[in-house]
Write a structure and sequence with these properties.
The structure holds 3 protein chains of 3 kinds.
Chain A (H helix, E strand, L loop, with lengths): L5 E10 L2 E11 L4 E5 L6 H8 L7 E10 L2 E2 L5 H7 L4 E4 L13 H12 L4 H14 L5 H4 L9 H13 L5 E5 L7 H18 L2 E6 L2 H7 L2 E6 L2 E7 H6 L4 H8 L18 E10 L12 E11 L4 E5 L6 H8 L7 E6 L2 E2 L9 H6 E4 L13 H6 L10 H14 L15 H13 L5 E5 L7 H18 L2 E6 L2 H7 L2 E6 L2 E7 H6 L4 H9 L13
Parallel strand pairs in A: 3-8, 3-9, 6-7, 7-8, 13-18, 13-19, 16-17, 17-18
Antiparallel strand pairs in A: 1-2, 1-4, 4-5, 9-10, 11-12, 11-14, 14-15, 19-20
Helix pairs in contact in A: 3-4, 3-6, 4-6, 6-7, 14-15, 15-16
Chain B lengths: L4 H22 L32 H37 L1 H15 L3 H12 L3 H28 L2 H8 L4 H37 L11 H8 L7 H29 L6
Chain C lengths: L1 H27 L5 H6 L5 H11 L5 H13 L13 H36 L4 H14 L3 H15 L15 H35 L2 H8 L4 H38 L5 H11 L2 H29 L7
The chains are: A alpha/beta, B mainly alpha, C mainly alpha.
């Protein structure tokens, strides 16, 4: 490994007195792909930023060497670093919405690096940009150079970002969670493209990710980090198949795994039934020139039986979230009917709707946004018990405390949400949804924002509560892994329509619709793990 | 919580002005309106700490009673602006639809008049008086409050906890009061603090122009206006009232900055 | 882009109309008969009735408003009650004094504020940053009329560098006119620079945190170019909006400055008219300033896409 592109030796990064990276060492051979894997707070992003010498304010390197070839970057002058950034090290950032400058055309931004680092003429630069944009799959590249970033979707922006970085043929490409903000299908496309480009140009790849599922497909080796320290390092396949450290084992165990199918339930009248549900949003624009209404949900039908767990899967823009909200009467229903326990609730409002509200609850995705930051946890969980009126406040508090106990949060009722971790907040949201013993819970991406190991715990809790309390559950997700774990039945939505519906194993093993097949193929799920399930 | 310099300095300045006003209610060194032409334009001395003005009135006493006027007018104006602004902003932000569109159009029109110009126009109609100033400035600043409140309500009502409250079956009114209104308290407090400074400045400007509290009552603004011809002979006449206005403005700005930092939800409750 | 321009124009127009309506109806709230005000108490009832008919005061209020609007659109703002002068030319005459002061002050404030604000943000939490913010806060806490008086005292009376009174029109003696507006411009520029420095700094701090700045640096872009090309346009966009507001506020508050420095501008015209209860003039000045304010903010809106092309998207 003497010809390593990058060698990091005993790197430590500190925020004030606290070390966020502690003695990290690794090496990267030319053309090799290494994944730095870790959950939030593991120090993986700080490590990546230290390599390219762009630590955010407040963080500084306190020890170690970073060798790009034979050159120590930590000792390099600012001028030398500028020469190296671009052709030496390229970096792709996480957030496609903010990683391109909104004030300049994409052409100007892609060209900027070429103008700085090469002696090409303006015309040559332009040709190179067009060729690269075409390579990353932007149709009509020559005309799109003059477009601004906001005219592209998130996935397209990450492709443009890749084009801008790979145009300089960097020896080392750093990708910091490049697809975390994208949906499953787009994620696979962008990562495949990145892998292919790195191979074509012989760039070594340092992939920063929280998702162990990506490692098998996109990395040769992986290094697992926890709280700033290296936990385990090794070839990707071996690390996944035979993890040696406890933490790695926990991460592998947190990968989605199909649970045993539950026995088919006897036919029963549906708890909730939507028929040809239609949801439209008014078109955007001023009232004088309004665009036509957007059809978010175009006639979707669905029935859920009491106690059934149904997963609703789809990419961003599929209408799955809107459908979930319409089912709860939180989004306006423009057409179709909604029946609950046989009675129509499509147009009820006010007190007529109350019995429906009392029976149906929701858990949202964002553990930061779904709890009122000015209320204590106990009051948040006790609030649903105001209705139906009659329960004295003291008993409400007692039941809230008992519910908190049940979700594993006993004794923290005094705290405010900001004092809780993401997983704890989601448990509070679950407690609030369940405290009134609802018949139906809609969980909208309820675990998507959580770290893998935490997600596993919250999912297990939810499954356990479902078994004991027997509520029906509609689980809305873009993540097929979640579906495998808990669903009885799977529905797939695409562009506002239901494209596939069936028993879980049938849909996952024998998908009928092309979109479902593409979704399954793109899922970051190491295929080698499947046989483990039977053991 | 660590002591912030903004909080300490801002609080001290405003506290000082309030203390001066409170003291003036019970005691001033001399009669602030009694003229004595034999001792006009005296420099500061042991008897007249800040000297006397062109009618021989004690500048310190006038400064103190001026504080009472400024503080009461500013406080009343802030209350008027807050009440109006909160009502318009809450209604527009929460009800949306045509209510918001109508209120928004009116609000935008009022904002199309620079605040003090609107106050000048209203005073032209109502004639100069203490309560005329309160009403004029209150109306002039209410749209600013309304805009802040409406913006906060619009961003809060999109948050999931508001939707969660609706999903629980809570009424719209309960949701508004329990989950939305409390979130406007922090930005409105910050705004009210800055508003206090701005109102004192505007009120002094109106008095400076002679469109405010009628003489012989002392205001910082009319003291400054009448000091102008005697700037060279008695600079203290110009310096003292201006310094008081600047103290209020700086105090309010610093306190507003400090409150914004403290009440910022990103720092926790 | 064309759609964006059209939308902004469509928003500005009703605002102008509503502003005109509020000025008109505000003036109708004045107690007393305008015809009587114009003619004075000694007028005969017949003369009053004639004037009422001539002014259209006997028609219903909405009709009066439309008639008035028609005249204003043609540039006819009526005549002053005090001296019978036509209000329209009077406004333009006085605006020729006010406009250079306000424009120069805002221009100077922006030129001063943007570099200082950006550099303070770039060196966030350094001594230079703290000093800049402190100075900016002190400046924006200065009552402009007081700062003006102090500057007048120091540079006019004590040092004798600038004339204390004596406005002459630019057309007569540009050099002396420049002298006369120097201190008001400096005063307003200093006070408004305080506001703008803080804004420029705050928006630069926000922008510096974003990934595209890191992206530019990660490509090897030199720091000066990062600031000029990647940070400036994005940080300047919100500051530009504020500049529009500042300009309007200066126009609104200009009466005080013009009183301090004895300049015969729009603000002074308004205040004198208020004292004289010269309602056609009051009405004219208010409408004129409101219209300018709306137009300035329209111009700012139309300029905005140069710095942030996102706003033109539907």
């Amino acid at each position: 490994m003497s010809a390593a592109v990058l060698r990091v030796e005993a790197l430590s990064v500190a925020a004030g007195a606290q070390r966020v990276v502690n003695g990290l060492s690794f090496a990267l051979a030319p053309g090799e792909a290494l994944a730095l894997v870790g959950e939030s707070g593991s120090g993986k992003s700080a490590s990546a930023r230290a390599v390219i010498r762009l630590l955010p304010p407040g963080l500084r390197q306190v020890a170690g060497r970073i060798l790009l070839g034979e050159e120590d970057l930590a000792a390099a002058s600012a001028r030398r670093l500028r020469q190296l950034r671009g052709p030496g090290i390229g970096m792709v950032f996480q957030e496609p919405m903010t990683s391109l400058n909104p004030a300049h055309t994409v052409g100007a931004q892609i060209e900027e690096g070429l103008a700085l680092h090469t002696r090409l003429t303006r015309a040559q630069r332009r040709d190179a940009c067009v060729a690269m944009l075409e390579r990353v799959g932007i149709a009509g590249a020559a005309t799109r150079l003059a477009a601004f970033p906001h005219e592209f979707s998130g996935g397209m922006r990450q492709r443009i970002m890749l084009a801008s970085v790979m145009l300089l043929r960097p020896r080392l490409l750093i990708a910091d969670e490049p697809t975390t903000a994208l949906d499953t299908l787009t994620q696979a496309e962008v990562l495949d493209l990145m892998k292919a480009l790195a191979r074509e140009q012989g760039s070594a790849l340092l992939l920063i990710t929280h998702d162990l599922g990506l490692v098998a497909r996109y990395a040769d080796r992986a290094l697992v980090m926890q709280a700033g320290r290296t936990v385990e390092e090794g070839p990707a396949a071996q690390l996944l198949a035979r993890p040696s450290a406890d933490y790695t084992r926990a991460l592998v165990a947190a990968l989605p795994r199909r649970g045993p199918a539950r026995p088919p339930r006897p036919p029963a009248p549906p708890l909730i039934e939507a028929r040809d549900l239609l949801v439209t949003f008014p078109g955007r624009g001023a009232w004088l020139r309004r665009a036509p209404p957007v059809e978010a949900v175009r006639g979707v039908s669905l029935a859920i039986q009491p106690g059934e767990v149904v997963a609703l899967v789809g990419g961003s823009g599929s209408g799955k979230t809107t459908f979930g909200r319409a089912l709860l009467r939180l989004a306006p229903i423009a057409g179709g009917t909604l029946r609950f326990r046989g009675a129509e609730v499509t147009r009820l409002s006010g007190s007529a709707l109350l019995p429906f509200r009392l029976a149906c609850q929701v858990v949202f995705q964002d553990p930061y946004g779904s709890l009122d930051p000015r209320m204590r946890v106990r009051d948040i969980v006790a609030e649903p018990l105001r209705l139906p009126a009659g329960l004295p406040p003291r008993q409400r508090i007692a039941r809230a405390e008992a519910m908190l106990e049940e979700v594993g949060l006993g004794g923290i009722g005094d705290r405010f949400p900001h004092a809780l971790s993401g997983g704890q907040r989601q448990r509070v949201a679950i407690a609030r949804a369940l405290v009134r013993d609802p018949a139906l819970v809609v969980a909208d991406e309820a675990v998507s924002a959580l770290d893998a190991t935490v997600r596993k715990q919250v999912l297990a809790l939810l499954a356990d509560l479902q078994r004991r309390r027997g509520f029906a559950c509609l689980f809305i997700t873009h993540d097929l892994g979640v579906v495998e774990e808990i669903a009885d039945r799977v529905l797939v939505m695409h562009q506002g329509r239901m494209v596939e519906e069936g028993e879980r194993d049938a849909v996952l093993d024998r998908p009928r619709h092309d979109y479902t097949r593409a979704l399954l193929a793109a899922a970051p799920r190491p295929p080698r793990l499947a046989p483990l399930v039977g053991n | 919580m660590r002591l912030r310099p903004n909080l300490v300095i801002g609080g001290t300045l405003l506290g000082f002005v309030l203390a001066v006003a409170a003291a003036a209610l019970v005691w001033t060194p001399h009669d602030p309106v009694r003229t004595n032409l034999r001792r006009r334009l005296r420099p500061p001395s042991a008897e007249y700490w800040l000297g006397t003005d062109e009618f021989g009135r004690d500048v310190l006493s006038r400064l103190m009673t001026g504080a009472v006027t400024s503080v009461t007018v500013a406080a009343a104006t802030v209350v008027v602006a807050l009440l109006l602004g909160l009502a318009i902003g809450l209604a527009g932000g929460y009800l949306r639809g045509w209510v918001d569109r109508v209120l928004g159009a009116l609000n935008d029109t009022l904002l199309a008049f620079p605040g003090i110009l609107l106050a000048l126009g209203l005073l032209a109609v109502m004639g100069p008086s203490r309560w005329g100033i309160v009403l004029a400035l209150g109306l002039a600043y209410a749209p600013t409050v309304a805009r802040v409140v409406r913006g906060t309500v619009l961003s809060i009502r999109e948050r999931e906890f508001v939707e969660a409250s609706r999903a629980l079956g809570n009424s719209e009114a309960y949701t508004l009061l329990r989950h939305v209104v409390p979130h406007t308290v922090a930005p409105v407090t910050v705004l009210a603090t800055s508003l206090f400074g701005w109102v004192i400045l505007s009120e002094s400007a109106l008095n400076f122009l002679g469109l405010g509290v009628p003489p012989p009552a002392a205001t910082w603004g009319n003291m400054l206006a009448s000091a102008r011809p005697f700037m060279l002979e008695a600079p203290m006449l110009s310096i003292a009232p201006g310094a008081m206005i600047a103290a209020c403005l700086l105090g309010a700005n610093l306190l507003g900055d400090a409150l914004r930092d403290i009440l910022d939800p990103r720092d926790g409750a | 882009m064309a759609g964006y321009v059209l939308r902004r124009l469509l928003v500005a127009l009703p605002t102008l109309l509503l502003a005109a309506a509020s000025v008109f109806f505000l003036m109708r709230l004045v107690p007393g008969d305008p015809a009587l005000l114009i003619l004075g108490d000694a007028a005969t009832p017949e003369a009053v009735a004639d004037l009422r008919a001539a002014l259209g005061l006997d028609r219903p209020l909405p009709v009066q408003f439309l008639l008035w609007l028609e005249r204003v659109a043609a540039g006819d703002f009526g005549r002053s009650i005090t001296n019978g002068e036509a209000v329209g030319p009077l406004l333009l005459d006085r605006f020729a004094v006010t406009a250079p002061v306000v424009l120069a002050a805002v221009g100077a404030a922006a030129l001063l504020a943007v570099p200082f604000g950006m550099l303070a943000a770039w060196k966030q939490d350094s001594l230079a940053d703290v000093a800049t913010v402190t100075v900016a806060t002190l400046l924006l806490s200065m009552p402009s009329f007081w700062l003006g008086l102090i500057l007048l005292l120091v540079f006019g009376l004590w040092l004798g560098w600038v004339p204390v009174v004596g406005w002459v029109p630019f057309a007569e003696d540009p050099w002396r006119a420049l002298h006369a507006i120097l201190l008001p411009v400096v005063t307003l520029a200093l006070v408004e620079a305080g506001v703008l420095i803080r804004m420029a700094r705050a928006s630069t701090v926000e922008v510096l945190r974003l990934d595209y700045v890191a992206h530019a640096r990660a490509k090897g872009v030199p720091e000066g170019r990062v600031l000029a090309r990647h940070v400036f346009p994005n940080a300047f966009a919100p500051t530009l909006t504020l500049i529009g507001l500042v300009l309007g506020n200066l126009l609104g508050g200009i009466a005080v400055m013009e009183t301090v420095f004895t300049l015969p501008g729009l603000g002074r015209l308004l205040v004198d008219a208020i004292f004289a209860r010269d309602y056609p003039v009051i009405q004219g000045v208010m409408l004129f300033i409101a219209a300018i304010y709306v137009l300035v903010n329209l111009a700012v809106d139309l300029l905005y896409p140069v710095f942030d092309p996102r706003v033109t998207a539907d």
